[in-house]
Amino acid sequence: MRRSPLFWAGLLLVLFGFLASIFIVVPETKQALILRFGLPKRIANGYDPKEEFGRTGAGIVSRIPFMESVVWVDKRVLDFDMQRQAVLSTDQLRLEVDAFARYRIVDPVRMFVSAGSERRVGEALKPILGSALRNELGKRPFKDLLSPERGEMMEDIRSAVARVARQYGAEIVDVRIKRADLPDGAPLESAFNRMRTARQQEAKSIEAGARREAQIIMGEADASAARTYAEAYGKDPAFYDFYRAMQSYRTTFGTDDDQPRGGSQIILSPDSEYLRQFKGGK
After folding, report:
1. Which residues of the chain have a pLDDT value below 50?
2. SS3 state at 69
3. pTM for this entry
4. Which residues neighbour 269 within 8 Å (Cβ) at sequence distance 6 or greater?
5. Which of 25, 44, 47 is nearest to 104 (CA)?
6. What is the phi/psi pair of residue 184, to 5°?
7. Distances from the Cα of 77 to the Cαs of 122, 133, 173, 174, in angstroms?
8. Cα–Cα distance list, 168 to 47, 80, 106, 117, 151 (Å)
9. What is the pLDDT, as a whole number, of residue 263?
10. What would the CATH number be for the domain defined by 78-183?
11. How much is the pLDDT for 223?
12. How many CA atoms lie within 13 A of 140 on its CB side?
């Protein structure tokens, strides 16, 4: 008995559907979590940080029809944005902060049990990121956001979120602050005034410290000079007396490059002690 072409076409269609229910194609960018009667059974093409591209578990994978189903989990880096948060810094500045985090699902079984889907993982981590931001920024002044300490601060936030993310089978790759602004209006002007006053006080403190240090240096220099003079006087009192007398004469009577150094007019007796060196120190 000859079968009609429609029969063979239907048979091929049924056979193709049966094979499709047995075999699935796992792409490089996906992890396949295979469930048996709704419970996790195994993972195909799971994430491995040491794997090389093209040498993964991607490809054709078999399953038991009607008993096993597949939950697809993205293997790539995902991200979520946090809603703008109001944060109070230690210098009492109210900041409006926008941030985002990038993460990857590294344990699909834990992700499925705790959250059910990768989308719910991102939703669960949003408030965690907001809490970590408030806690960390609340311990630091606003200027830290503009200094090299920002990198350390972001790493602390990432670590805080990562501890919770592990419960959802996720790994936090990075956390970044997109914007950290002061609110418009009077709070902004007040913040600028506080910052200006703080900088002025800091400048005065630095200036006072510099003056104090200069006085110390001058005092030490004078003491060193006096000590040097005393040592010179002790070694050769006659020469020291002559040298000091010559300096005094030059200041009082002498010139330097045709410019008068002394403007004094004095009347002295030839026997004056001041003129003793003119007589050879006698």
Report:
1. 186
2. strand
3. 0.58
4. none
5. 47
6. -70, 160
7. 12, 21, 8, 10
8. 15, 15, 9, 10, 26
9. 57
10. 3.30.479.30
11. 82
12. 20
